[in-house]
Amino acid sequence: MYGFINSCLQSLVVEKFGLETWNTLSSLAGLQDPFMTYTVYDDAVTLKLVQEACALLDVQADVLLKLFGEHFFSFCKQAGYDTMLRTLGGDLVEFIQNLDALHCYLALSYQEMNAPSFRVEVTENEDMLLHYYSDRKGLYHIVPGIIEAVAKDFFDSGVRMVVLEQTEEEQRTGKLEHVVFLVQTWQNVSEKSKADEEKLFAKMKDNCRGVKKCGWDLIKTAVLSEKDQPQRSCSPCYPQKLWIEEKSFCNAFPFHMVFDANLKAHQVGVNIQKFFPGLLNGDATVDQYFTLVHPQVTFTIESIRQFINSQFVLESCKERSFIKLRGQMLWMDSLDCMLYLCSPKLRSLQELQDSGLHLADLAQHDVTRDLVLLNQQRLAEMELTNQLERKKEELRILSHYLEVEKEKTEMLLYAMLPRHIANQLKDGKSVEAGEFEVCTILFSDVVTFTNICSACEPIQIVHMLNSMYSKFDRLTSVHDVYKVETIGDAYMVVGGVPVPTATHAHNVANFALGMRIAARDVTNPVSGQPIQIRVGLHTGPVLAGVVGQKMPRYCLFGDTVNTASRMESHGVPDHIHLSASTYSELKDSEFDITERGEVEIKGKGLMTTYFLLKNLRLSEDAIMGREGTQSPIIHPDNTDRQNHTDAEKIQSESITTSSSDQSTPGPACGP
């Protein structure tokens, strides 16, 4: 089937059940790319879609197929076939009788189209018997949906269809499914009453009274109805003698054949004789030279008479003279013969040339000339449409890749700058520096990092820092703090900047506790033991802004930055050093803090500082942001005992800390 059919099924699911349902359905059916209108797809693709749709939507196949038939009619109208469909017939019978002709016309563009065949019989009760033939089994439920939609839209009538018979017939191309429908119709619009008709006639008489008309006006009045449509009450008059000689007839209709019930040819057009000179010799029959392509029935007079209202396509079975003919079959009772009025079936000028024909071989009255030229343009438009659809699909794929790369770029940008500031820079706006009245800054570094670097290979240092920083980076998202930068082994974060928050000190304190826990999982490449870090915190005002153009950075300036760096450089390994201002933010909360005492801080003099020990309400798993964690239960007696032990340990470590560790300066982001 062509992609047009599958696109219709996609449109039905999206319109009735939503885009999400179609995405699920296409995933179940193993489809990834959208359907191309003029691309041929295996029937199994469509059948798979129908099967999965029935299972997903929990509906029977006949219900879904009928719904598809109704939607297919609307889909064809929206695709530009509305006018073509409306002109097929004046009533439902004529419409169905001309469906095969429409399919034959569309086959000029859709060369691989394998459409079903339809045949109509009218019963004595004026009911319709619709015969449906197809080599695709189980799809006949689509027919009632289409016919009911056509009757309602075009002829303002209701339709009731019942399956009378369903069989398989052995035909030339294989087994065909033959389904016979009983079709009953009724008008939805009430007919005009007799009084309305009398008023209408009176109005027409008044319009004609007192008006002087010329001869042509009188003729128009006589033959035209109120809607200016010709009246069809004229009975044909046939001549007693056919006023055309045999030679003129064969020249006027160069492609025609007359054959009897045994398919023996008695008369053929001049151009058919040119291609098949032996057709009139001896006992040659038409089926020796031609194969019946459409309808897909056995090439016999009985089969032809069953489909007498269909368009017939014959294909030559001689390799040297390949040609296709399409036309109308007329049964002549008096001669007991069949007349086949036809013309070559051609899709393009290339096929005309390949068949060994020229435009001059086609009769002047034959519309095949115009059809070939118009379809040549149509094929060019189809090829252009194919190219546009392929380019559209390529653009869709490229657009998807572009979105993925854009997301990666934005992730890198947001890693360098705060999100709202990065968005301002992307929009070409200037970012002004901002002053924050209070925030909490953290610095950390690795103890004896200089000694580690001198004793290890560079790649070992990179692996160690990458492992450590990856763990720290994850914690910034857990505790909602902003990572400012890293320089060597130094790591700097801030709470309350660039988005002010009242819990800035609490967030940074929990982050510091997480850093200390995470550092225990990072191995010192020299000793093989877990590394130790120093952490320092300070709270105060800062000035923040974007610095630089080539590699812009969001930097913090002010004495708060320097003081926080001093807290880290004068800290104790594996401990979190707090300034008095940070302590005042945390002292009345859930944190366990002990006083270190007065410490001589470079450039600051004596300062009373503190050590952050733990969070009394959060467990280690909660601080690390692990799923399924619960806060621990705190026992006051155990807590006091542990605090006393930790205080003694800290004082001992503070005395024994080497001067070389304390003299390591931290990074400064401001004067």
From TrEMBL:
GO biological process: cGMP-mediated signaling; response to oxygen levels
Record family assignment: Belongs to the adenylyl cyclase class-4/guanylyl cyclase family.
The enzyme's E.C. designation: 4.6.1.2
Region (Disordered): 628-671
Alphabetical list of SUPFAM superfamilies matching this protein: Ligand-binding domain in the NO signalling and Golgi transport, Nucleotide cyclase
Species for this entry: Mugilogobius chulae (yellowstripe goby)
Compositionally biased region (Low complexity): 652-664
Protein name: guanylate cyclase
Domain named Guanylate cyclase: residues: 440-568
Entry-linked InterPro entries: A/G_cyclase (IPR001054), A/G_cyclase_CS (IPR018297), H-NOX_domain_sf (IPR038158), Heme_NO-bd (IPR011644), HNOB_dom_associated (IPR011645), HNOB_dom_associated_sf (IPR042463), NO_sig/Golgi_transp_ligand-bd (IPR024096), Nucleotide_cyclase (IPR029787)
Record key words, sorted: cGMP biosynthesis, Cytoplasm, GTP-binding, Lyase, Nucleotide-binding
Domain of life: Eukaryota
Location within or outside the cell: Cytoplasm
GO MF entries: GTP binding; guanylate cyclase activity; heme binding
Bias-annotated ranges (Basic and acidic residues): 637-651
Cellular component, GO annotation: guanylate cyclase complex, soluble
